[in-house]
Amino acid sequence: MKKKHPWLVDIGKNIRAIRESKGLSQEELAELVEIDRTYIGGIERGERNVASLNLIRIAIALNTEVGNLFPRLDMLPLISRY
Amino acid sequence: MKKKHPWLVDIGKNIRAIRESKGLSQEELAELVEIDRTYIGGIERGERNVASLNLIRIAIALNTEVGNLFPRLDMLPLISRY
DNA sequence: TTGTGACTTTAAGTCCGTC
DNA sequence: GGACGGACTTAAAGTCACA
Predict the structure, then answer these.
(1) Chain B CB within 8 Å of residue A79 CB
(2) A51 vs B49: CB contact, 8 Å cut-off?
(3) For residue A56, which residues of chain B lie inside 8 Å, CB to CB?
(4) Residue A77: per-residue pLDDT
(5) Which ranges carry the HTH cro/C1-type domain (chains A, B) (predicted)?
(6) In Å, how far are A21, B14, B32, B40 from A46, measured between CA atoms?
(7) What pLDDT does residue A75 have?
(8) Which nucleotide is nearest to A40 (CA to C1')?
(9) Distance in angstroms (rounded) separating the CA atoms of residues B78 and B82
(10) Which domains are delineated in chain B?
(11) I want to staple B9 with a disulfide (CB 3.0 to 4.6 A). Which of A65, B1, B46, B64 is the partner?
C-alpha cells in the first residue's frame, strides 16, 4: 500500500462519490477519460498526484466543475503543509 | 518557447491575475508556496501541467479556492480533447 | 521582475497480472 | 467490480545560468 497524502485522499473521495452517483464503474470512467483503469483506482485511493489536464478531463467526463473535485480551502489542515 | 495547451494557458492566466490582484511578484508567490520562481513563471505561461498538490498549495498561498484556478466547464472547447 | 533553454531527478501514467 | 503489485516509459517536478 502506497503513501497517501490527505489532500489526495480527499480528491479521491470526491471523484469516487461523483462517479458512483453517475452509476459508472472505474473502468467505464477510465474509458471515457482515456486513462488507464488502474490509474483511476489509484487516484480514488489517494495514491496519485494527478496533473491538471487529467483532472479537467475527469471533470468533463463526470460533467462537473473541476473545483468540485478538490477539498474546500476551509477543510484543509493548513498545519500540514505538503 | 514551449508548446502550450490551451487549458494550461487558462490556468496560468487565472493564477497570474489572482497573484497580481494581491500585489505579489512571482518571486514572492514562489517563496510563499516554496516552489522555484521559474517554475511559477512556467505555470503562468501555460507551459507546465501542474499536479494537484502544487495547485492546492498555490491556491492556499493566494487565499482562493482551487476551483478558481481552473477554467469553467462551459468555457472549455470540448472538441479539442487533450 | 520575468522569460527561457538546458538539465537531472522524481513521479505520472501504462500495461501486465493476481487476489 | 475493485484493490493492489511489478516493471516499464513518459512527463512532471524542480533547479540553474543568463538574457
Answers:
(1) no
(2) yes
(3) 7, 70-71, 76
(4) 63
(5) 15-69
(6) 19, 26, 25, 25
(7) 77
(8) C13
(9) 9
(10) 6-65 (1.10.260.40)
(11) B46
